[in-house]
Amino acid sequence: MDTTWRDKGIVRWTIIGLLVVAFLGAAAWYVNEQNNRGLPEGFAAGNGRLEADQIDLATRLGGRVAEIRVSEGDLVHAGDVVAVMDTSELQALLSSARADAARAESQINEVRALIQQREADLALARIEFQRTGQLAERGVQSQALADRAKATLAVAEAAVEAAQAQLSTAERAVEAARALATRYETQIADSTLTAPVFGRILYRLAQPGEVIAAGGRVVTIINLTQVYMEIFLPAADTMRTPIGAEARIRLDNIDYAIPARVSFVSPEAQFTPRTVETYEERADLMFRIRVRVPEELVRTYVDHVRTGLRGVATIRLSGNDTEPWPAEFVGKPIPEDALPKAE
């Protein structure tokens, strides 16, 4: 009797397990069908949200904020001045370095004049040495005078060498002063913060008069040159999604098909059940796909671009070159007169 009840329990739990597996399989099928409902063959779709990279504009040097020329929500172009740091101390250091450079240059001129004088003394000492040496050989003058002329020549040669060494030192001093001046000029230039890209000010993180440390953030910019949506596709669709593949984005509550292109396909699966998978599990692996909106289109509709909006991205898979976009799924085309014109 115990064996019979045990067998019935095994059967009961087996049935429950099969029902759970069937339910999970049905749920997975339903989610996949929801993402691709109504799509004809040759298309794949996934849910995502519109995103853009954020750039924190920070100071390279610590100091006081002199002015901030933008407010949150302002549109900026690459090269626009966003903020300016106080450079009064750097300007004083630059003036001092330039004065040191000018003083070192004047010393070079003085040393060059000294070298000319020492070389003239050396030429005279050589003449005197030759004359006294000849006279000493003929016995007209004493050898002592010849020795004294030889010593004078040696002193003149040493004086020329010393003057040339002074010239080298003065030239190095000029280079050092100019390098220091260049350093301060670079730091002053870095104190003017400019927008690196076309974008919109998201956060203003500092105020004029505040003292911030090196690397302190001043503003955060949304990079509108890189507006994209990331979705996940199964392995079968990913294998048919090349870089540059045509895509359409349809945002919630906006019935337009936004043209886009695939700019990134992850080289590895994002969801991996186990190190070793069955064939069915490998078929369920998902890969991250990035679909990018052309910068020209973003500039055309820049006042309407909002990151964070949710929607669906549809991709034309390889091998599907003629099938029209399903308007009921991707939305209606953007009017031709509203699209950017090719130059």
Structure report:
Residues 54-217 form the Multidrug resistance protein MdtA-like barrel-sandwich hybrid domain. Residues 87-121, 146-187 form a coiled coil. This is Secretion protein HlyD. Keywords: Coiled coil, Membrane, Transmembrane, Transmembrane helix. The chain crosses the membrane at residues 12-31. It is a single chain. Helices cover 44% and strands 27% of the residues. The protein is elongated, with a radius of gyration of 40 Å. Helix 2 packs antiparallel against helix 3 (143-190). The protein contains 7 helices and 13 strands. A hairpin with a 4-residue loop joins strand 9 (246-251) and strand 10. Residues 21-34, 273-279 and 338-343 have low confidence and may be disordered. The protein starts with a helix and ends in a 10-residue tail after the last strand. It is α+β, with helices and mostly antiparallel strands and 343 residues long. The strands form 2 sheets. Strands 1-8-11-10-9-12 form a 6-stranded antiparallel beta barrel. Strands 5-4-2-7 form a 4-stranded antiparallel sheet.
Structure summary:
It is built from seven helices and 13 strands.
Which strand-content bin applies to the residues? 25-35%
Q: Give the N-terminus to C-terminus distance in angstroms.
A: 88 Å
Overall outline: elongated
Which structural class matches the secondary elements?
alpha+beta
Query: Which percent bin holds the helix content?
Result: 40-55%
Largest sheet: 6 strands, antiparallel, barrel
As an assembly, this protein is single chain
Low-confidence stretches: 21-34, 273-279, 338-343
**Rg:** 40 Å
N-to-C series of helices and strands: HEEEEHHEEEEHEEHEHEHE
State the total count of DSSP E strands: 13
Spatial strand sequence of the major β-sheet = 1-8-11-10-9-12
How many H/I helical runs? 7
Mean pLDDT metric: 80
InterPro entries: MdtA-like_BSH (IPR058625)
Transmembrane segments: 12-31
Domain Multidrug resistance protein MdtA-like barrel-sandwich hybrid: 54-217
Pfam families: BSH_RND
